[in-house]
Design a protein that fits this description.
By secondary structure, this protein is an alpha+beta fold. The chain is built from 23 helices and 28 strands. It is found in: Cytoplasm.
């Protein structure tokens, strides 16, 4: 199969999945009756249930397992917070406009699509040209606006919808801006991530944790990004759910006490060196990756292992999951190491989880901007003698020079690191004055030699103050869920082979409904039994649905298979019922009073379906049908002919 045929096959599969998802109301475009808004989606009842189940498992797997501190912060964030984090200045994508219609496009996406399209569909592409296009794809994140514009013009790329010429690329900030309060004087933004709420609360969280490191804080919430040209359904949207963890650790000790629990896990990893040399992802034990220095430290490696377990237990195919290390041109200057959990779907490899060692950048940035020290301390068993930087502002001189701003200048001077302070001292001694930036005033001031003294003195210390490093796993929940839909979707022939039926093979952990209850036919006695079973399921906390329509049992099975319901109870007699497993379509016979507890065992993972097959008699459709005929021969209930010839096993 050539590249073009493969692309067509992927497109057909994706369309089948999306059509099923929208028809069964897993998700639909928002504001549909008003023609919708690109990049905004509503989750319907089954979609809400899947999302709730994924988040519940995330809390169990991470928050409870690691004793994390969960918080919930506002979506509206003051501008000063996002200035400190760098989002106001740097949270941008390069945009181009259709010069006639004004329609906006993300510049790198147009170039990326052009290169991929040529590589996949142009049979006459020379090896030299293919190598050039692959190099362009590898360097996308490195291009300046001018370089990106030159590539777009050089390849003759035009507006996709109109073929009109495009403007030069220019930066567009992706945050939604707003004002806080009626005066409009306090600017804010809808948060582009949940992490900043954790960073600004570090001081209180550290105190809550008994002033001890390491510890982790977690937050689940909505984030907002004003995407230039949203596409790919749930994969690139303007409002989405993030689940983020900030694990605070001593930068001098990034070991993890539970690393041995994941060290033997082996999965696909794509180290930086393999990407640069043109190799493929390969299976590596995470313990070996850490010991060989491929992964920077144990804590980062531990979370990579835990993310692997989380995704595969949800139902992600382990052979279509890889952990890709960021290339040098993707890494933030302050980051120690970054990996993305990428899941393969019909759109290619999609980044769904980022796991980064962000060093101490975030806490230092907020310390500098707020003037509040976001630090931890380590108490020594005995005092130690250290050479200490001593910065002594001369407040009288600073007061005369800066008046009401004296306090902010003093705080900024006292917050200097050793390197910055010694450089300032050298400049003052050489020139008598120096420029010094005050972040809280957002301007540079002139500091004179008589305004402070900077020296190093030996002194005894009882504790060490330091800014913790942060290991951050960040989960795009919508992306994970969409990839899950694709990985768990398949079709199979109906019983008589005349049509293909859609099935979502959700594990019970994720399934929107765990069990359905079907009276075989519309009959008061069977319906009463079904209601009694439903009440028992409710009591043990199992989500379920009763279907008492007169539709054939086969069609009812098909409807719930399409929703991914793993188990179905069919009431075909009063003392016992059949329990069906979705994917094998096998059935066992279980007593009415026992069936709810059996379903509970299965959905909680206490028992697997093969265990149930060993404990209970396998159901055969012929004896059940004979029993059904005998029971109803004594009643005056009319049995539709199609029910008689359709056994209750599809």
């Amino acid at each position: 199969m050539d590249a073009a045929q493969e692309a067509q096959k992927r497109e057909a599969f994706r369309q089948a999945v999306v059509n099923t998802l929208e028809r069964r109301l897993f998700y639909i475009p928002s504001f549909k009756i008003y023609r919708g808004v690109a990049g905004l989606y509503d989750y319907g009842p089954p979609g809400c249930a899947v999302k709730a189940n994924v988040l519940a498992f995330w809390r169990q797997h991470f928050v409870r397992e690691e004793s994390m501190l969960e918080i919930d912060c506002p979506c509206v964030t003051p501008e000063i917070v996002l200035k400190a984090s760098g989002h106001v200045e740097k949270f941008t994508d390069l945009m181009v406009k259709d010069e006639k219609t004004g329609t906006c496009y993300r510049a790198d996406h147009l170039l990326k699509d052009y290169c991929k399209d040529k590589l996949e569909k142009d049979p006459n592409l020379s090896a030299e040209k293919a190598a050039e296009l692959k190099h362009v794809l590898a360097m996308l994140d490195d291009f300046s606006p001018e370089e990106l514009g030159a590539k777009i013009k050089g390849y003759g790329i035009t507006a996709p919808d109109t073929k009109n010429t495009l403007s030069d690329p220019y930066p567009f900030n992706l945050m939604f801006q707003t004002s806080i309060g009626p005066s409009g004087l306090s600017s804010g933004y809808m948060r582009p991530e949940t992490a900043q709420g954790i960073f600004v609360n570090f001081k209180d969280l550290y105190y809550f944790n008994g002033n001890k490191l390491p510890f982790a804080a977690a937050q689940i919430g909505q984030a907002f990004r004003n995407e230039i040209s949203p596409r790919q359904g749930l994969l690139r949207v303007r409002e989405f759910t993030l689940a983020e963890i900030e694990h605070f650790v001593d930068p001098e000790d990034k070991s993890h006490p539970k690393f041995s629990e994941v060290s033997k896990l082996e999965f696909l990893m794509f180290p930086r060196e393999d990407q640069v040399s043109g190799q493929q992802a390969r299976k590596i034990q995470i313990g070996e990756a850490v010991s060989q220095g491929i992964v920077n430290n144990e804590t980062l490696g531990y979370f990579i292992g835990r993310v692997y377990l989380f995704l595969t237990q949800l139902g992600i195919d382990k052979d279509r999951l890889r952990f890709r290390q960021h290339l040098a041109n993707e890494m933030a200057h302050y980051a120690a190491d970054c990996w993305d959990a990428e899941i393969e779907c019909s759109y290619g490899w999609i980044e769904c989880v980022g796991i980064a060692d962000r060093s101490a950048y975030d806490l230092r940035a907020h310390t500098d901007k707020s003037g509040v020290p976001l630090v931890a301390h380590e108490k020594f068993s005995e005092p130690i003698e250290v050479e200490k930087l001593v910065i002594t502002p001369v407040k009288k001189e600073l007061g005369l020079a800066f008046k009401g701003n004296q306090k902010k200048v003093v705080e900024a001077l006292e917050a200097m690191g050793e390197k910055e302070a010694m450089e300032l001292k050298a400049t003052l001694e050489a020139e008598g004055e120096a420029k010094f930036r005050i972040c809280t005033l957002d301007k540079e001031v002139i500091i004179k030699k008589d305004m402070l003294s900077i020296s190093k003195r030996k002194k005894k210390e009882h504790q060490r103050l330091f800014t913790p490093s942060v290991i951050e796993p960040s989960f795009g929940i919508g992306r994970i869920i969409y990839c899950l839909y694709e990985h768990l979707f398949y079709t199979r022939a109906s019983k008589d082979g005349d049509e293909q039926l859609n099935v979502f093979r959700f594990p019970p952990l994720v399934a929107p409904i765990k069990c359905t209850v079907f009276p075989l036919v519309q009959n008061q006695q069977y319906e009463e039994v079904a209601k009694r079973i439903a009440k028992s399921l409710t009591t043990v906390g199992i989500s379920h649905k009763i279907d008492i329509t007169g539709t054939s049992i086969g069609k009812r099975y098909a409807r719930t298979d399409e929703l991914g319901v793993p188990f179905a109870i069919t009431v075909d007699s009063a003392p016992s019922v059949t329990l069906r497993e979705r994917d094998s379509r096998q059935q066992v016979r279980v007593n009415v009073d026992e069936v709810a507890s059996v379903v509970k065992e299965l959905t909680d993972g206490v028992s697997k379906w093969p265990d149930i097959l060993l404990r209970y008699p396998t159901h055969s459709s012929r004896p059940a049908l004979l029993g059904f005929l005998v029971e109803y021969s004594t009643s005056l209930v009319a049995i539709p002919q199609n029910d008689l010839i359709t056994p209750p096993l599809r």
